[in-house]
Design a protein that fits this description.
3-stranded mixed sheet, alpha/beta, TIM Barrel
Length: 320
């Protein structure tokens, strides 16, 4: 089974006041994961994955560079490419009105979600993002993901108009059902729409009747391990895991490391290496644009395992 370990690589501002004064600290936390305990950001994550012979898809957000210049974006792309991982395009449109030179005509205030823009504006913004990545050393983009999964049916038209074949913005636990893409359906498997191959987030029923997407900070290692085996047994073609460049940091200010999630990440990497004959980590480059002929069953996790994860998360919040 193909496994996509996706890392959203983004500069997270934690507010919009005094951006220029705070940028060096913001960048170091968001990308390098600098803490008093050491650095646990993107370079650390990619090194651990390389140590286990694994690869990731790094969805890189470039719009921040319209405020802070080309050099930091060059640095981000350089980290990903030097480590041999796959760069793709991510976009958080809350940066649009922060640009020193306007990216769109008539911008007035924040429109934080890509779905807040017209199809023409989305086409323009995705094209700008592609050119920014190209200037930083990414000559070709195969896949796109909207920031916060906040896309709509126009987004897929805009992705297609920019010559991108794959999208990974659909998350049925967030904006997916309200996107206008296959309305009335709950979707967790790859499908084609508007000329695009959509690879949604993998989601599961956590035993309480609620759906949860598979994210490193949101699921225990045991949950992810059991879900991977269940997906393989059920005949899933692929499985998507979500992480972020700052995923291993704790606290609202991300000022310290999170030992619980770090252990979770290292255990998952060790597991994936050990079971590489069953789980093939890959990217979108060279992927055949095929989708399942049949709907795979919804993955489910027993409520007792959810209870264990809740206890682990409470421990994280109290002690880290």
């Amino acid at each position: 089974m193909d496994v996509f370990f996706t890392i959203d690589v983004e500069v997270s501002s934690n507010g919009w006041k005094n951006l220029d004064e705070r940028f060096v600290n913001i960048f170091n936390q968001s990308i390098h994961g600098k803490t008093p305990q050491g650095q646990f950001g993107l370079p650390y994550q990619l090194k651990v994955m390389n140590d286990h012979g694994l690869m990731s898809v790094c969805f890189i957000e470039p719009l921040f560079s319209a405020r802070f210049g080309q050099q930091p974006l060059d640095e981000v792309v350089g980290i990903v490419c030097a480590a041999g991982h796959e760069p793709q395009l991510h976009m958080h449109t809350e940066w649009v009105d922060e640009a020193r030179i306007p990216l769109l005509d008539g911008m007035n205030g924040k429109r934080p979600n890509l779905r807040d823009y017209s199809v023409a504006e989305q086409i323009s913004l995705i094209g700008i993002g592609k050119r920014m990545l190209a200037q930083a050393g990414v000559p070709h983009v195969d896949a796109f993901r909207a920031g916060s999964f906040a896309f709509n049916h126009d987004t897929l038209k805009a992705v297609h108009a920019n010559g991108i074949m794959y999208d990974s913005s659909y998350n049925t636990t967030m904006f997916g059902p309200a996107s206008g893409v296959r309305p009335g359906e709950t979707i967790w498997w790859p499908f084609k729409h508007a000329g695009i191959c959509e690879h949604p987030m993998t989601v599961f029923d956590d035993g309480t009747g609620k759906l949860r997407h598979v994210q490193l900070t949101a699921c225990s290692f045991k949950e992810i391990e059991k879900l991977l085996w269940a997906a393989l047994e059920a005949g899933y073609a692929s499985f998507l895991i979500l992480s972020h460049s700052f995923e291993l940091l704790s606290g609202r200010e991300r000022s310290r490391s999170d030992p619980v999630v770090i252990r979770r990440f290292r255990k998952l990497c060790k597991f994936l290496e050990k079971n590489s004959d069953s789980f093939h980590l890959r990217g979108f480059h060279g992927l055949e644009p095929e989708v399942p002929m049949e709907t795979p069953p919804m993955l489910r996790s027993p409520i007792w395992r959810t209870g264990w994860r809740v206890a682990e998360q409470v421990y994280r919040r109290i002690y880290y």
